[in-house]
From TrEMBL:
Swiss-Prot/TrEMBL keywords: RNA-binding
Database matches in InterPro entries: RNA-bd_S4-rel_YaaA, S4_RNA-bd_sf
Gene this protein is translated from: yaaA
One Gene Ontology molecular-function label: RNA binding
Organism of this sequence: Clostridium sartagoforme
Entry-linked CDD domains: S4
PROSITE patterns, alphabetized: S4
Name of the protein: S4 domain-containing protein YaaA
A Pfam cross-reference name: S4_2
Length: 68
């Protein structure tokens, strides 16, 4: 599992995908989310603006990213 540190209270899901390197562009992240390819804490998430906080686990493309 990859650990990704954020320095704010939360980060939006689409921004998180760019921050951790899973998506290179915001438009790319949006497509992944809308195509139900992203899970947050084990559940498919289609909300681009979902607030990701410390302790959350984001799954995408076979990788898991834990927010610390």
């Amino acid at each position: 599992m990859n650990e990704v540190k954020i320095s704010t209270e939360f980060i939006k899901l689409d921004s998180f995908l760019k921050w951790c390197g899973a998506a290179s562009l915001g438009s790319e992240a949006k497509i992944y989310i809308l195509d139900e390819m992203v899970k947050v804490n084990g559940e498919i998430c289609t909300q681009r603006g979902k607030k990701i906080r410390q302790g959350d686990v984001v799954e995408f493309n076979g990788e898991k990213y834990k927010v610390i």
